[in-house]
């Protein structure tokens, strides 16, 4: 059974918590925690809709989903904290560092060189924090 | 030999023409043709940089590259003609219609419901023009 | 009991249908219908999350919510069909045409004159389709 | 007489100074001051056009105008300093913290979850700087 | 006396009308006229602020100002009608068609190939409507 | 021979290095260096395409090209590091500080006051780092 498979009787919130933990790990938990004193309902929505509903859908695997998210956040260029979380998430679900870099480089074509450049520097920070050299897994 | 493999001695322009034909087919040729009387050099750049340089890179297969592009163009929301070309391209390189729709739906999370909605209607037009019902390949 | 009040035992989907009908009327139904042959699940998400969850929240009345949405869609400038639906929605929940125009004009300050200009022309189309002269209610 | 009412014989610049002081308070003055050694004419334009012309218009009250501005700046996602100034401004003209949070949460629907998330964290900083707990006025 | 020089005693509105006529010609008048039944005050603001204040400033000539505007509107990618007006305006104040095309091509670097492509097609329409072949003045 | 003139037999990469050095100086070299351990191929693309291909084109002088780039990056509002590099570049190729400020102020019309304001503060930082008062060359 793959990670995305819904469990019988599982609520959207429980499924969202499970999928968030699997994809985003520690970084996801920090976002949820940081919302508790300002907008706890929004933390619930994040668990329920993006993770409980969307990432749990069976039609696309998590690797493909993270390719899509890294591409979009790089291209939009105004959500660097979320891009970093999803570069981490991409590595967590099986993308290599080289693949993450390929996705970001490609965005130069669609959103311009500054968007790609800022995406690469975000990746550089994430990779450095994980402490492995480029070329090693995750 | 995969489609992306560089051929020895092939120029960037020739490689770009080959990769464009493989990915975008007729839709790509139309864009190149439409530029001839206004900016033929830009047509050359499109062949050379996005297709001759980027899509020809070996680190990510074309299926993954089109996932990234469909995601980014849906999220940006201001390049509908190019989104349609790349929905076609995605189908050409092996994405199913269901996968295209999954990618676009996911963009509601990152770029909002209107971006996803407009992306879905663009996909609907592309699918209709190809004349097959949803569920059939390509 | 205001329109936003949750009914005991009502599902998110049912609440979303009720709130959509109240806010968007015919225009909302058309969007939901147009999705049925391409992405029916996304129609469900629209009913459940924006309408069943967000617009149903008690902390802000629908008039204020439509002010926010008209402002945002005008400023973003890449979602004209949705802007028109929400200009209609704004009139449905009690904004006057003059108020809609004030909101859009104000966006020139934050998103530039072209965004405001295109928003005003969208409003002109919506008003014309409703067939009343400026100054009359709704 | 409301704050927005034009005073007879008042220049655009004087009216803008009066309205800026009323809406933005100290934060507005800091922006104007910071421009003096780089672009003093632009400081004058800010006073004259957004404040002297737009916010002074009688067709929409300041509470509604700040709802519109907070929504737009959250959705655009690339103007955090100005979003913070207008979260303050919203509180100054009568929005509660809960209402500010509702507006920002709603933007997840139109501009995506990252835009709303970054808006909420901006609000958290503004609220912390004002030193009152959530739930207290302003 | 250059076109931008302020005339003694001229109001912002009169100066704006004069500068708009000089830069935008017929296309500018159409925009102003189209606003009369929906938001006549906004027409006045367009004359007063962009044209009466900004384009009238002496520190940059109109050719340079139109280079800036064509670049920005191409890069933003969500204001095609205004981009067309300013391609016309650029030709009116002395840019050649080749220069307009150079500016738009350059935007591929900063905003991506789709933005440049859509800008080039907008230019193609403007040039066709003016009825001269590429290479002739204006 | 002007700086943009292609030298016979020069490769795109060599021409790009020469043009980058001329336009961006130290700031450009830092970007190229920072990419070496994360995406050295992307550094090559920056040299080859924007600088070797686009900025080397003869149809528009470098002063005009930097006007276009400063305008676009100010309007886009999500690429501050690149905006700073190009404010420097503009000064390097002959724009005065006053002209840079005029370009940025003008963007208030097309992209809103926050975009212009943030652009002015970026310029203020660049000018301060260069250590000359406003009014002096470069």
TrEMBL record, chains A, B, C, D, E, F:
Pfam families: CMD. GO terms for molecular function: peroxiredoxin activity. Signal peptide: none annotated. InterPro entries: 4CMD/NDH-1_regulator, AhpD-like, CMD-like. Residues 40-125 form the Carboxymuconolactone decarboxylase-like domain. It comes from the Bacteria. PANTHER family: 4-CARBOXYMUCONOLACTONE DECARBOXYLASE FAMILY PROTEIN, GAMMA-CARBOXYMUCONOLACTONE DECARBOXYLASE. This is 4-carboxymuconolactone decarboxylase. It comes from Pleomorphomonas diazotrophica.
């Amino acid at each position: 059974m793959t990670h995305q498979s819904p469990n019988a009787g599982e609520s959207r919130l429980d499924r969202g918590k499970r999928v968030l933990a699997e994809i985003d790990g520690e970084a996801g938990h920090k976002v949820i925690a940081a919302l508790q004193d300002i907008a706890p309902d929004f933390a619930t929505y994040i668990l329920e809709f993006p993770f409980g509903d969307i990432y749990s859908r069976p039609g696309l695997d998590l690797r493909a989903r993270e390719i899509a998210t890294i591409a979009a956040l790089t291209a939009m260029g105004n959500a660097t904290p979320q891009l970093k979380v999803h570069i981490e998430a991409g590595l967590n679900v099986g993308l290599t560092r080289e693949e993450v870099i390929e996705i970001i480089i490609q965005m130069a074509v669609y959103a311009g060189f500054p968007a790609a450049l800022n995406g690469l520097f975000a990746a550089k920070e994430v990779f450095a924090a994980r402490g492995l050299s480029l070329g090693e897994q995750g």
